[in-house]
């Protein structure tokens, strides 16, 4: 399919399978592309949907899916003939008074989801065979659904995601950039939890860290919920009071022998500035210094931003090369996407990009 400019299709018809995918299992694969393999990887990415079909067709009820994201530096190396997506830039590292959001390498990202782990594993294996000698795996995480959608801190994670079939599309998919309609911006961070410190907190105190009750998953009343709770700092609005949302699909991961207990944070947004404002609130604080208390128990060890192109671009990038570039407007048209990722709320200190 040609670019959104030509097709007149709805964003969700142009998008990769970002939304509505029920996943009990996921593999998050971050790879870098070796020098000299740029063109081969660009061509190889067109084969990913076919590989997904080969693996998934045999057990269709597992709903195997794959979303592919492209990092800023790889875009410059492999897609320089195409108009650059306006929100694409390296993940912006943030240094707060206590905690840091690191920026780590990532050229291409594969988000594999299915209801069974074997399906994700087989597709990951096929992808690595397909790109053998062209890429190096920087990070590989196996996520699993844990009881009733809980993270390893014991809280239900995902409740306040924008609801399908309208709010999730609006939040996640570019809808008013004719060229890249159906695209999205993906931000990922791998967090490791300090479980002994967390478990030492009484449940009532844990609830004040998150901003919701643990067992019943009810949001704390405003007069009880601390301003440095995770929920308080992640409910953000534009200047007109409209809530700005992202679509998250976090999953836990871990290795008991290594005492590794983590949350893989993964989010899709039509405008990366929304996710970046949340990260700023969490790490720098809102106001600065009032940082997210969940970070006292959770350390971000990776951080990457990717453009998730409409599916037609991966299939046939050349068809986008001769289309006129249009300014990429935000779906949340009430705010602008700044190059530093800030929505301009508060006074924010940022460290340099890595
Ligand atoms: C250690 C990593 C993280 C954990 C364990 C975690 C866990 C949670 C939990 C338990 C909730 C409450 C239930 C829900 O609505 O989903 C929540 C809400 C939320 N989180 Fe996180 N989260 C993490 C990182 C992040 C990051 C990095 C962001 C943004 C950049 C983020 C954005 C949000 C948002 C937007 C909400 C919904 C707020 C609302 O509307 O009530 N989270 N998270």
Structure explained in plain terms:
The chain is of the alpha+beta class. The chain has one domain (4-321). The chain contains 13 helices and 14 strands. The strands form three sheets. Strands 1, 2, 5, 6, 7, 10, 11, 12, 13 and 14 form a ten-stranded antiparallel beta sheet that branches. Strands 3-4 form a two-stranded antiparallel sheet. Helix 4 packs antiparallel against helix 6 (117-130). The model is unreliable at 327-354 (pLDDT under 50). The chain binds protoporphyrin IX containing FE. Protoporphyrin IX containing FE (HEM) is lined by residues 151, 153, 155-160, 189, 191, 210, 212, 230-231, 234-235, 246, 263, 265, 275, 278-279, 282, 294, 298.
Could you say which small molecules are bound to this protein?
protoporphyrin IX containing FE
Summing up helix and strand content along with how strands pair, one would put the structural category as: alpha+beta
Return residue spans where pLDDT drops below 50 for at least 5 consecutive residues: 327-354
What's the Cα radius of gyration? Answer: 20 Å
Query: Could you tell me how far the N terminus lies from the C terminus, measured between alpha carbons in angstroms?
Result: 35 Å
Mean pLDDT: 91
Strand content: 15-25%
How many helix segments?
A: 13
Number of domains: 1
SS elements, strand count: 14
Q: Can you write the helix and strand succession as a string?
A: HHEHHEHEEEHEHEHHHEEEEEHEEHH
Shape: globular
Helix content: 25-40%
Largest sheet: 10 strands, antiparallel
């Amino acid at each position: 399919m040609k670019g959104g400019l030509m097709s007149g299709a709805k964003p969700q018809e142009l998008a990769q399978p970002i939304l509505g995918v029920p996943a009990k299992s996921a593999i998050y694969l971050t790879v870098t592309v070796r020098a000299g393999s740029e063109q081969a990887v660009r061509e190889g990415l067109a084969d990913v949907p076919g590989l997904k079909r080969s693996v998934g067709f045999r057990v269709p009820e597992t709903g195997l899916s794959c979303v592919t994201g492209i990092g800023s530096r790889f875009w410059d190396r492999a897609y320089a003939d195409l108009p650059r997506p306006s929100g694409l830039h390296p993940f912006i590292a943030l240094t707060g008074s206590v905690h840091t959001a690191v920026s780590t390498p990532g050229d291409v990202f594969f988000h594999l989801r299915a209801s069974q782990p074997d399906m994700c594993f087989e597709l990951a294996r096929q992808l690595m065979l397909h790109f053998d000698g062209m890429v190096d795996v920087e990070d590989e995480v196996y996520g699993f659904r844990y009881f009733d959608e809980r993270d390893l801190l014991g809280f239900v994670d995902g409740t306040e995601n924008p609801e399908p079939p309208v709010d999730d599309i609006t939040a996640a998919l570019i809808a008013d950039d004719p060229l890249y309609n159906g695209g999205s911006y993906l931000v990922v961070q791998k967090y490791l939890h300090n479980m002994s410190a967390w478990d030492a907190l009484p449940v009532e105190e844990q609830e004040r860290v998150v901003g919701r009750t643990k067992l019943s998953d009810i949001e704390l009343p405003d007069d009880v919920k601390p301003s440095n709770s995770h929920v308080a700092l992640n409910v953000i609005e534009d200047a007109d009071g409209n809530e700005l949302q992202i679509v998250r699909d976090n999953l836990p991961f871990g290795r008991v022998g290594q005492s590794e207990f983590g949350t893989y944070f993964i989010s899709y947004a039509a405008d990366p500035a929304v996710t970046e404002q949340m990260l700023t609130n969490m790490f720098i604080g809102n106001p600065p210094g009032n940082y997210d208390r969940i970070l006292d128990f959770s350390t971000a060890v990776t951080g990457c931003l990717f453009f998730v192109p409409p599916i037609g671009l991966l299939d046939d990038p050349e068809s986008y090369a001769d289309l006129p570039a249009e300014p990429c407007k935000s779906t949340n048209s009430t705010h602008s996407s700044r190059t530093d990722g800030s929505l301009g709320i508060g006074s924010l200190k940022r460290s340099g990009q890595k």
